[in-house]
Amino acid sequence: MAKYNITEKREKEAAYRSLVSPKLMDEMQEKIMNIIVMQKKYRDKDYSAKRLAEDLGTNTRYISAVVNVRFHMNYTSFVNKYRIEEAMTILVDKRYQDLRMEEVSDMVGFANRQSFYASFFKIMGITPREYRITHLAQHPSLKPEKPKKPAKPAKAAKSAKKSAKAATKKKEK
């Protein structure tokens, strides 16, 4: 007798997916892309499938069906994909090198750093920090320039005293 009861995973086809006509799917796909991507609603932490459905005058089942069939993922994964893409751009942009991960996470629409890290790792296979470090190592010109520290007054004063002593000794000879 088998030690483990392993069965093949069967793909379940949701009945409502077939109820949405291809023409309506095309229309809704375009509208979803417009709202989520073009209007950058993915940056809004509170922009749920329910709010998207309200904005499109439909229900969440249709939204779910279109996202599943056309984009081959669920709504959350769909939105997170665009958040991660923008985060990748921000992480390697010279202008944003001083931002902490929490700030990057917030800018792209994640509710917290843990969700950001989990989604980033799921999509990219590395953490956002590792991504930034790796990318900067490959492109040293993108590393932020550190401002040069001015000479310490104490050192400048000491070297001035030494120069003055040396000049005095030369005069004495």
C-alpha Rg (nearest Å): 29 Å
CATH class of the domain at 84-142: Mainly Alpha
CATH topology heading of the domain at 84-142: Arc Repressor Mutant, subunit A
Question: What is the typical, i.e. mean, pLDDT?
Answer: 83
Number of strands: 0
Largest sheet: none
The CATH superfamily of the domain at 84-142 turns out to be Homeodomain-like
First-residue to last-residue Cα separation = 106 Å
H and E order: HHHHHHHHH
**Oligomerization category of the chains in this entry:** single chain
Number of helices: 9
- Share of residues in strands: under 5%
Low-confidence stretches: none
- Helical content class: 55-70%
Helix/strand-derived class? mainly alpha
CATH architecture classification of the domain at 84-142: Orthogonal Bundle
Shape: globular
Which helices and strands occur, and which strands form pairs?
Layout lengths: L14 H5 L2 H17 L10 H8 L3 H12 L3 H18 L8 H8 L4 H12 L3 H11 L14 H20 L1
